[in-house]
Write a structure and sequence with these properties.
With 340 residues, the chain is mostly helical. It has one domain (2-326): ABC transporter involved in vitamin B12 uptake, BtuC (Orthogonal Bundle), CATH 1.10.3470. Helix content is 69%, strand content 1%. It has 14 helices and two strands; from the N terminus they run H-H-H-H-H-E-H-H-H-H-H-E-H-H-H-H. The protein has helices spanning 2-28, 36-52, 73-93, 100-120, 122-125, 139-142, 146-172, 175-185, 187-192, 197-223, 234-246, 251-267, 280-299, 320-337, and strands spanning 131-132, 225-226. It has a two-stranded antiparallel ribbon. Helix 1 runs parallel beside helix 7 and helix 2 packs across helix 10. The radius of gyration is 23 Å and the shape is globular.
Length: 340
Amino acid sequence: MQDFVSISLVYLGIYALSAWSLNLQFGYAGIINFGWIVFQSIGAYFAAVTSIGPMTSHSYQTYIFGSSLAFPLPLIVGTLSGAVLAAILGYIVLTRKIRSDFVAVIMLVVAIIALQVVTANVSLFNGANGLSGIPQPFNGVLHLSRAGYQWFYVGWLTVICIIVYLGIEWLCRSSWGRSLRAMREDEELATHLGINVQFLRLVVFVIGGAIAAFSGALLVEFLGAWSPDAWSFVETFVVFVAVYIGGRGNNRGAFLGALLVPVIFGVFPSFLPAFGYPGLSSTLQWIVIALLWLCTFYFRPAGVLPEGRLIVQREGQPDVSSMFRRGWQGSRKSLQSEGR
């Protein structure tokens, strides 16, 4: 039971980072990134190969860029790899005047091609077998038991999630975040307001890609293994459903969606006893996730926690929101006194 709770909390932290990165791109900027999983995968891969050590002639695994960097350098390398890949793909796709639905299709094709290349090429990424024996950070220093190390990782990941959440919230509530909303609602109007839409899309794409790669690096260092089969493009839709159900453009909603979809309906069934024919529980899991998304479309299209209205005022100006509330209350009282 302790393993179930600690592992579920670790996955919750990873999926929260994942949902925040995609919410930044999709929820705030309106970029439909169906290739999101590629950035998490590349962060996981580079964190793995920079921790596992250089490949030798006696190695049972084949990979490139192998080294033994001290912690936290593998996390930094993994994060930077996602940022670089996002900068390259973003420059090719997002700096052109391409419709958002075409961007979504292009990124989906990139994710499918990447999965096929990684799985088929054994000499580069060890094929479908993936990598194992990845050293876990702090494990050889703290000398904790297996359960103790898992709870330590929960605490360490909680601190990281709080820092990332506060940073994203600060960005999204700043003038930069308001520019993202303006670009999302009407790119042409945002351009007339003096916003460099192409550059802004590229920047938010890079930040989201870096956070996605960071989440993959954290996960692979906790698991001690990397497998391309676990990074299929369908995983992108799990995070999309989490963001949509929780509430687009709301980081608290994205966290709630990460708890509901990937953790409760994704991780929890793996701890249940097997029933029915092989693969039945996995099939039912996808059916439940699809039904959740459909129900959200129908009953709560803005999500469980919709994006709130952001009222901004300069220093020295009166509080517009409080004036509005006072004016509304005064209007109600006057109407009641007149008997309307």
